[in-house]
Write a structure and sequence with these properties.
49% helix; disordered N terminus; 8-stranded mixed β-barrel; alpha/beta; binds magnesium ion; 12 helices; binds ligand C2E
Length: 275
């Protein structure tokens, strides 16, 4: 039997898989040089107040400008960075550079803008996080309400006893927090009441399915109602059509982000929007 499973295991090594393991190893090596080699860049995606139509914040989204492979999406390297631990340094780089960009926009006298940053579990549970954030904001002379940190349900569920402590400490220094991609993970509404978070970002799968299934509208509305009772600010992700935006306008949803409003743009393009 051992012989048989051994044979089966061997069969798993198709050319395709062999290639992908090689590619993974190679990407891993290349990613180490990407930070020092200035190959990462940030895009910014506007988040608007649905009722006034005004810009409220931007989400910083990382891109890898690879010298030979071209622009690589974070969905292709963030999981690998998490596996190898490089995410730690990447998140730090994003935090610093996105906040620095925001400080520059503030210096130039543009309207106050909250910068939203995605944090991996590694950074969220980093004992130095709160201290580092506080130090960075003071160095840049940025008020804490200019920063929101986004974490997924998966992250917040990892070490539940520490989660509340970290969120409470972030709240103490005045930084806002978002539960990102809400509805894709545990989607348990009951654990929400124990989490001292500021915002709930409804995952784009709910928004894109709004009119595909008649039951989705009421589900989304129920989430909004509950969230508003818990004093959570709701942000809808992935708004791609005017119909979706109109639906959100009629409900308790206050903020929206998505292709219909604006795709992620470069810092220069963002500055043009600010002007
Ligand atoms: P996320 O935090 O949920 O970010 C939203 C993603 O949805 C972005 O993908 C954005 O480009 C995309 N998106 C926005 N509007 C629409 C829309 O209307 N339709 C569709 N189909 N997509 C839309 P992106 O930039 O590829 O990022 C993917 C994920 O990678 C992010 O999901 C986040 O989890 C992660 N990520 C991105 N930047 C960072 C970072 O700096 N640090 C960490 N740790 N993770 C990051
Ligand atoms: Mg996000
Ligand atoms: Mg999200
Ligand atoms: Mg998402």
């Amino acid at each position: 039997n051992a012989k048989k499973s051994g044979k089966n295991n061997f069969q798993l090594f198709t050319t395709e898989l062999y290639d992908s393991i090689l590619l993974k190893k190679q990407l891993e090596q290349e990613m180490k040089f990407a930070l020092s080699g200035n190959q990462f860049t940030l895009c910014y995606q506007p988040i608007i107040d649905i009722h006034s139509g005004e810009l409220s914040s931007v989400e910083a989204l990382i891109r890898w400008n690879h010298p030979t492979r071209g622009l690589i999406s974070p969905i292709h390297f963030i999981p690998l960075a998490e596996e190898t631990g490089l995410i730690y340094a990447i998140d730090e780089w994003v935090l610093e550079n996105a906040c620095r960009q925001n400080a520059i926009w503030k210096e130039k006298g543009y309207q106050p803008l909250t910068m939203s940053i995605n944090l991996s579990a590694r950074q969220f549970y980093n004992k130095e996080l709160v201290h580092n954030v506080e130090k960075l904001l003071s160095e840049l002379d940025l008020p804490p309400e200019f920063l929101t940190l986004e974490m997924t349900e998966g992250t917040l569920m990892q070490h539940t006893s520490d989660t509340v402590q970290v969120l409470t400490n972030l709240k103490k220094i005045g930084v806002k927090t978002s539960l990102d991609d809400f509805g894709t993970g545990y989607s348990s509404l009951s654990y929400l009441k124990n989490l001292p978070i500021t915002n709930l970002k409804i995952d784009r799968s709910f928004i894109s399915d709004l009119f595909l299934d008649r039951r989705n509208g009421p589900i989304v509305e129920a989430i909004f109602t509950l969230a508003s009772h818990l004093d959570l600010t709701i942000i809808a992700e992935g708004v791609e059509t005017v119909e979706q935006l109109e639906f959100l306008k009629k409900t308790n949803c206050k903020f929206a982000q998505g292709g219909f409003i604006s795709s992620p743009v470069t810092a220069e393009e963002m500055e043009a929007i600010l002007k």
